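Cross-check.
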Amino acid sequence: MENFNRLILSARAVALFKNVINNKCIASLLKLLEADSDNEEEFLSLYSDFISLLYEKTDDLCEYINSLLQNDENIYVRDSAKGQASPILQKALENELDFFESLSKITCDDVKKIINTDIYLPEWKNSNLSVKEEYIRKISSIKTTGYGVYATHRMFLYKDNEIVPVKFPDPQRLSQMSGYELERQKVIDNTMALIQGKPCNNVLLYGDAGSGKSSTIKAIVNEYYEMGLRLIEIKKNQLYSLPDVIEKLADNPLKFIIFIDDLSFSTNDNDFGALKAILEGGVAGKTENIAIYATSNRKNLVKENFNDRNGDDIHLQDTIQEVMSLSARFGLKITFSKPNKDLYLSIVENLSVQYNIDISKDELSIQAEAFALRNGGRSPRTAKQFIEYLASK
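Predicted model, tokenized:
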């Protein structure tokens, strides 16, 4: 009981991990530890409240506290990511980790000893790990593991002015892709430069629909996630928020691809200027840990019609050049063209191996060509749809 009292006092002094202390389950545990054991009804109620909250996530108290610490974003982890954690913060961290180490080792038997009851009490377990050692190990590799929500997710969306994780990201891997090896290697090389802190380019992947432009970017993120790469997808109508997104990511130790899918503009599009300013390196230009990757079915990005060329702008030619040269502001432009017959059938054959399709090569080719004819022509997307169709049968 004396040890519990000391833990309660230590909990009230926690400053760095305040979010963890305020977590419902941890707050419930602390309330249980300071409960009056003579009041059996109240004690049992508090016990069940705590165990119910713990069971929502796990039956292992140590693992649960470890996950809370690992995912907490606080001043120490932010300063540590920038190499600026002060001795004062370091001392506070060590003391608070000692507290959580002790808290994580509390067993259900420890709690049961302070109350004399014949009522069955559900139990939890305590895994054999040190939350302090795990946290220190995590901090030592923070430039690749990240912190907060970025430590547990790899792909994100920008929604309601916040960066939110994608719960079920596209699992596409490079090893599952066939064809366009030269095109993909250019994107991979540029991404590796970003990861290694070397100069890299903003990238425009343009070409026919279904040729694997978006899949290439997502597969690269899945491939190099453990090296500290993350993806933030922004819709075209959110481009005005780019400076805010970049500011949120500027001090993060991880590397980020800001992904804009299916990008195109009309000549009077208000979103045009927002992207142009970032690509030109304006006052709110991108930082060294960020690259912009965009896909488009149009090389010039701006939809131009004859009215644009016959407009009443006094400096008409300057206007045309401005809207047509946006793609030139991407340092790396890669074309994904519609595959010819040989490439298409090669992609089909490679996918058939991945999906364990048992059919002769000649029959596979005949059916693949017929499927493409019925479904808008040859493309890697059509090839995958065809193989998935066969697999479903």
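The two ends are 65 Å apart (CA to CA). DSSP finds 19 helices and nine strands in the chain. Passed to J.P. for a second look.
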